[in-house]
Amino acid sequence: MKFETVTIKDIARALGLSTSTVSRALRGSYEISPETKKLVLEYAEKINYRPNPIALSLKERKSRSIGVVVSEIANTFFSQAINGIESIAYNRGYHVIISQSHESYEREKVTIQHLASRSVDGLLVSLSNETIDLSHLKQLHDKGLPIVFFDRITDEINTHKVTANNVKGAFDATQHLINKGFTRIAHITNSPNLSITKERLQGYQEALKKNNLPYDEKLVHYTLHGGMIYEEIQDEIQKMFNARQKPDAILTASDRITTSCLTALKATGKKIPEDISVIGFTNTNIAELFNPPLSAVRQPAFDMGQTATELLISIIESKRPVTEFETRILDTELFTRESSEHAPALKGSQQSQD
Questions:
Q1: Where does residue 6 rank: exposed (0-12), middle (13-18), buried (19+ CB within 10 A)?
Q2: pTM score, two decimals?
């Protein structure tokens, strides 16, 4: 059975009024008597009448909707960011349409074009691992569609951006491992073109440099799908332990990479922290329940979602073209637990002194 929506014409027919009278009564127009308003509103409530959002959007030239594009909703970081996005959007009277790129440029492109065709008032975008060409976004931005980037941002489009302090987060995590005595720290990260990849690699390198440790590019492992394909992480783990010089600790750069790395290490029989120590970027709420509890860099995902949404709505609702933009950088938090607490054995007299 086809679902039939109730229209203003249905109310007018039932009450013996004109459609224009019903329309004005529903809008609270002063031209309509209080008695008629009461009659219309009570009947509309009785039959569960709701205004047609498509008709309203055509009239107001606004859809009151925001498009959100992320790599994967199941990713803990993005699910928390979406909660932040919805908390602001709902209170401001906007609906949120969420789409996933699954780390695919083509899927991201099609998704964004679809959202634009549905006349969303603006877009919140976190770029996919594969995205290098931004022409699909530049074209929409040049036509006046408000766009705000969060987490995975770009300098190629002049707009508001919200991200975490990835440099400091990776620096703090690497420094923690160095303080524990680790000197060959591997780094498993996302696609090299992503902003978060570059920033986290920078923090990792800065910590090595500060402690006079050499940077070995062989210890940096890039993943095109960011941990979404388990075999990709498994291959990188095998490469690490097949190498002549093996790492003594691993810094992982995202939620998916972190969890996939832990699974791959377990599958190869490696014990944490006895055989290898691990610290990773992750927003999972159960990191302390892992075995062993996982040391982690936590991003302010919820706050990032809220901030990005506030900035987007400020563009949407501005009565004048917005020409000045800002990049908000929110602080990360480092939580150290047992997965990174095992110091490597020292040799010779140093070992005997311990």
A1: middle
A2: 0.81
Kindly tell me the number of DSSP H helices and DSSP E strands found in the chain. 13, 12
> How is 230-288 classified by DSSP, letter by letter?
HHHHHHHHHHHHHSSS--SEEEE-SHHHHHHHHHHHHHTT--TTTT-EEEEE---TTGG
Mention every residue, 6+ apart, whose C-beta is less than 8 A from residue 254. Answer: 75, 77, 189, 190, 196, 226, 227, 280, 281, 282
The mean pLDDT value for 217-239 works out to 94
- Whether the per-residue pLDDT at 350 is higher than 60: the answer is no
| pLDDT, averaged across the chain | 91
Distance of alpha carbon 281 from alpha carbon 189, whole angstroms: 10
Contacts of 316 (CB under 8 A, 6+ apart): 121, 122, 146
Question: 327-330 and 65-70 as β-strands: parallel, antiparallel, unpaired?
Answer: unpaired
What's the pLDDT at 47? Answer: 83
Cβ 159 vs Cβ 102: under 8 Å: no
How many residues can be counted in the chain? 354
Would you state the pLDDT for residue 31?
83
Q: Say how many Å lie between the first and final Cα of the chain, rounded.
A: 78
Is the separation of the CB atoms in 109 and 85 below 8 Å? Answer: no
